[in-house]
Amino acid sequence: MKKIALVLIFSILFISDIPAQYMSSPKLSGVGLPFFQAGIFRTFDDAGENRIVRLYFQIMNDDLTFLKKDDIFEAEVQFDIYVNNQQKEFVFNRTINKEIKTPLFEETNSRKIKNSYTTDISLPPNVYDAVITALDKNSNKQVNRKIHFELEDIKSKDFLLSDILFFQDYQTDSLGNISSFEPNLTSNFSGENKHFYFYFSSIVDKPQDTLNVKYTIRNASGTVAQMNEYSLVKDEQRSNHYIRINRHQFDQSRYELEVIGTYHGKAITLRKIFSFYWTESPQSPKDLDKALEQMRYLLEADSIGWALKQPYESKRAYFDRFWNRMDPNQETQKNELMDEYFLRVNYANENFSTLSVDGWLTDRGRIFIKFGQPDDIERHPFEIDSVPYEVWRYYSVRKIFVFIDRTGFGDYYLHPDYIDQEFN
Q: Which of 157, 344, 418, 424 has the fewest CB atoms within 10 Å, counting from its CB?
């Protein structure tokens, strides 16, 4: 239905950096199921003798069913945790029940209010599978998540590092130090916050000796975007590391963080991916401009040109107003048509980009965004006495497109004989 809806809209409208910046919400979210995010954080006790697995859960109000009781709207969710080891032996289970209450009806459908919970598990070294089930007690619907993880033996180790957690929201103590924070389980930062943070903890057997920490951030092509190094000498064996990063120093969507801790000549390396994809609406001026430019297959060029010249708030209102008007289901928080459109842009960027042109601007990218995945693709990369070419067929709308690679370097162009197919 989405593909047909887009094709119909395009037919009406045209009669009258990589990867892309958008990330849709998961398919199970916003459709009446208790979809939740879950994350594993492997750490250790203060003495460094036992491994601790910290499980994090986050669920949005919009993914819960609220019932009105007197003047309060109430939801109840139950998390069941089951852990098996590599030998398929059952080793742990726990049930956690939580209630969410709000006096405001609009908050029951909020996709911005996240309810976060955590629980700690102590496990011996092994390889594990954790199956987590969220049960919405008001709707009796449930969602399962499975997480695979490994715990190595930490006995006789004089130096340890925990996993990495990203976050933005935190609380401070009376001295202004971070005392607690809400982890970002997606490791994606879609807002316009100036800074974000990453956290890990370390433990050494002789705190008076120096622990060296070096962290490096690389973009998708491996180029170093940021690097820093510091040394730590403390009176305590355990240390918490909170590193603040300036979000505005990054101009691409996806990066890898590498942390290397070195102590007594021994090194431990941690790695984690993070990203800056926007989700429900572009929050930064740069993302908004890019999103408006990518809407050229829906809007006239002069309309986009006018919008790009407006102040940020006016541009954002224009963007939101357009997609609200196009939303095929006003009763849900999700905009299915916007999801489909920008996911097609993403696909085009990932699959049709050349050395000089983003995928969404290529001929194949444009056709893919307008008409979706072809019903059939016939590829001819090594034809004798012919340049490489592809034939795309759309049976439902009775269209055929032929793309030719004139240079042999993957720069496919729509064959002139098939240009009319795009608009007829």
A: 424
Domain count, the chain: 3
Residues 292 and 281: their CA atoms lie apart, in Å, by 11
Same domain, 408 and 381: yes
For residue 34, whether the previous peptide bond is cis, meaning omega lies within 30 degrees of 0, is: no
Q: Are residues 134 and 268 in the same domain?
A: no
> Which residue range(s) make up the domain with 222?
157-276
Please give the model's pTM, rounded to 2 decimal places: 0.80
- SS3 label, residue 358: coil
Report the C-alpha gap between 192 and 319 in whole angstroms. 17
Per residue in 180-229, pLDDT (tens digit) is 999 999 999 987 788 999 999 999 988 889 999 999 999 988 999 999 99
CA 202 to chain centre: 27
Q: Are residues 50 and 11 in the same domain?
A: no
Residue 291's Cβ-count burial label (10 Å; 0-12, 13-18, 19+) is buried
CATH of the domain at 81: 2.60.40.10
Q: Are residues 417 and 389 in the same domain?
A: yes
Element (H, E) at 197: strand 195-204
- Tell me the pLDDT of the chain averaged across its residues: 90
Say if CB 132 and CB 119 are below 8 A apart. no
129 and 220, same domain (yes or no): no
Non-local CB neighbours of 325 within 8 Å, separated by 6+ positions:
none
Query: Are the beta carbons of 195 and 181 closer than 8 angstroms?
Result: no
Interhelix angle 301-308/312-326, nearest 10 degrees: 140
